[in-house]
Amino acid sequence: xxxxxxxxxxxxxxxxxxxxxxxxxxxxxxxxxxxxxxxxxxxxxxxxxxxxxxxxxxxxxxxxxxxxxxxxxxxxxxxxxxxxxxxxxxxxxxxxxxxxxxxxxxxxxxxxxxxxxxxxxxxxxxxxxxxxxxxxxxxxxxxxxxxxxxxxxxxxxxxxxxxxxxxxxxxxxxxxxxxxxxxxxxxxxxxxxxxxxxxxxxxxxxxxxxxxxxxxxxxxxxxxxxxxxxxxxxxxxxxxxxxxxxxxxxxxxxxxxxxxxxxxxxxxxxxxxxxxxxxxxxxxxxxxxxxxxxxxxxxxxxxxxxxxxxxxxxxxxxxxxxxxxxxxxxxxxxxxxxxxxxxxxxxxxxxxxxxxxxxxxxxxxxxxxxxxxxxxxxxxxxxxxxxxxxxxxxxxxxxxxxxxxxxxxxxxxxxxxxxxxxxxxxxxxxxxxxxxxxxxxxxxxxxxxxxxxxxxxxxxxxxxxxx
Length: 467
Prior knowledge:
single chain, alpha/beta, 8-stranded parallel β-sheet
């Protein structure tokens, strides 16, 4: 039995265009679009009709940077794949790309299998994986080729966190050379972790233990330096590069300079860098611990450069780096020593709404909203046009979005499994009303109707900006 859903009367917004159109969905895919009121649209019949009058109809969001159940700093991220993907759906995101982690000394495959086991049967929306390389050697380099063939087409390396995830320049160069050959994309956490560790030690020796010092030791110049170095290593290797969670004006300048040379260098930022700042890290008591993440929040004046980078396409993607730790019992591990505060913020539920607010605030256009949150991440990580757009043949990942509904972000009302909101009390205009994942309604007029296990694992093609 074929199942048909019709979304009628909305303003369809993609990265390419805005049009008043009806959307016909059949068997989990978009079957057709036609102008609202046209003869074609008027002839369609469906098992279910969703009235989108006065609303936007947009592609489901693609969040290309999440960390569900990530072990870090002696604890685990507080969202499971079940709670995290449910929260993502509430926020209008219908695909996440999470990070499988290689344990040092162990095969990549073992880490990947562990993440498959965590996610399998648990997700409310579709998901894919990147692979974190913790140990670059001859064996793991060979494994990269096999993973690319089976749809794990991006690999994250860290210039930060010595003794945990850190890779030195030689290891980075070798991984980049391999990706240049196999079509994979290297994702880089660009901070000079060796220098930062010296500054951390010195700060603690001076008795500077509060959360705000986390931001002060992880200097913007050390993000810029590492970004510059990563770009030069990628040039030597002849490889593309994607720099994650760009937070500093100086780092944006490095990306812009590389892109001006025509290099295949890409940059991502996150809502926390666009909306929060070191003012939050400096909140009294131990409240600043809620805002400890790496790269760190920067002084407010960096935000203008990030918005400008998003408008000029020197930054292409906004992901969340969703990695939540509860304030009680997790962030508190760092009382008296900021270096022991688990690094990470919750945000997978907030991204689409915050970016819509940015449209209203005049930072970006409506189409750019969809581009940086849906279409470009899908293209960057080999999911387009199955994900990230509304076109015949695409997965029916569709959000009916009310652009006039007002909401106040709060831990009292969010669905992430974390005891605080990074945006507590923030008023925004715009809210998700109904969400379909592969044609199945998972949020129905602000009620969750999805289920764990609906979401499927999605292998990916290689980066579509390199063809």
